[in-house]
Write a structure and sequence with these properties.
alpha/beta; TIM Barrel; 30% helix
């Protein structure tokens, strides 16, 4: 059920009902501008990942700065974006099941929709859905470039799958998906460079083998917030799929030489109990902030440590300085932005302490 907005435009930040998902608009816009400026000299395009923001509003802000379109992971996310006017969407994932594929093919009537595959059976199913809908769908071959999750082996296996796609009257070979997700959070620059160096090498080799078979790659996609500069400088990738750069989170901040973006996303929480000495309890626990990548940080309050979470409560320890007041509002920096956003129906956009806008998180909960 869509929840009522926790704020109204013009309201002061401290009046926002909590827990609420807060967007610092100045920081968000700076991040969007920075990524556009960083990629411009490389010639590599941004296809921003909407699995992070789940919002047609933010997608349009990114495309206004030169992004060629959006990535998503689920058909439901693609639907929310396409219905929101986003014209070019890549499902950078495998889609399995006739119902999902029928929905995907239906979207191809109102937007350019592409999808990934790593198995000939998947290709056959996409082909059947495209034929039934009377559309032609671009399909990218996903290769395993080192993440060990999805993807056919680079080289001859990938080429064979690409040839199967290219031979179909209802599909079009769209290129390669080569994304090394776990490399984004390897802590040192040397570790990230080694991982992406391998990804670039196997991707380059596969692109060349495809070329030898007469198959060009319109898209060679991959790269995330933690490594995008490496893929962009490779001369192999044509599109970068970063998503978290718009918001950032505590886990990216733990990287040595972290990405050059500002923290713009916060969970606003209220101190709801001061019953114990040296402890403050806020109304933001597991249901308000994701802890899969570590506990949140308390913004601009170094003496407060978010020590533990339960369903509805976050326990802060007062380790230095003044304890927060009962009823005081605190900004929390989530450990992982993507699943935190998925807990909310609304972004509360603030600028200089005032609510400026409310944006629905249209693809919230789109798991299918």
């Amino acid at each position: 059920m869509l929840q009522s907005p926790p704020a109204e435009p013009g309201m002061r930040e401290e009046e926002v009902d909590t827990p609420a998902l807060l967007l610092d608009l100045d920081a968000l816009e700076a991040n969007l501008d920075s990524m556009a400026a960083l990629l411009a000299p490389t010639g590599v395009k941004l296809r921003a990942h909407a699995k992070t923001h789940k919002s047609p509003v933010i997608a349009h802000l990114q495309m206004a700065r030169g992004a060629v379109g959006q990535c998503v992971q689920k058909v439901g996310e693609a639907e929310a974006l396409a219905w929101g006017g986003v014209p070019d969407i890549l499902v950078s994932n495998q889609v399995v099941g006739p119902a999902k594929l029928a929905r995907l093919a239906a979207l191809a009537r109102i937007a350019r929709i592409a999808v990934c595959a790593d198995d000939a059976a998947q290709v056959g199913a996409i082909e059947a859905a495209a034929e039934a809908a009377g559309v032609r769908i671009p399909v990218l071959v996903e290769i395993d470039c080192g993440a060990g999750r999805c993807g056919v082996a680079p080289g001859p296996e990938a080429v064979a799958l690409a040839e199967r796609i290219a031979a179909s009257r209802h599909l079009r070979f769209g290129g390669l998906q080569s994304y090394h997700g776990s490399a984004q959070h390897r802590r040192t620059p040397a570790e990230r460079e080694a991982a992406i160096g391998h990804a670039v090498a196997v991707t380059r080799r596969t692109v060349e083998q495809l070329r030898q078979r007469g198959l060009g790659c319109e898209i060679v996609g991959g790269g995330g917030t933690g490594t995008f500069a490496l893929e962009a400088a490779s001369g192999v990738y044509t599109e970068i799929q970063a998503g978290s750069y718009a918001f950032m989170d505590a886990d990216y901040a733990r990287n040595a030489a972290p990405p050059p973006f500002r923290q713009s996303l916060f969970v606003l929480a209220t101190v709801m109990s001061r019953a114990l000495a040296g402890v403050a309890v806020v109304d933001a626990g597991h249901k308000a902030v994701a802890v899969d990548s570590g506990l949140p940080l308390v913004q601009d309050r170094p003496g407060l440590r978010y020590a533990s979470a339960s369903d509805e409560h976050g326990k802060l320890l007062v380790e230095a300085g003044e304890a927060p007041r009962l009823g005081e509002k605190l900004r929390l920096v989530p450990g992982h932005c993507d699943p935190t956003i998925d807990r909310y129906d609304w972004y509360v956009g603030v600028r200089q302490g005032r609510v400026e806008c409310l944006w629905p998180i249209a693809a919230r909960g789109a798991m299918a």
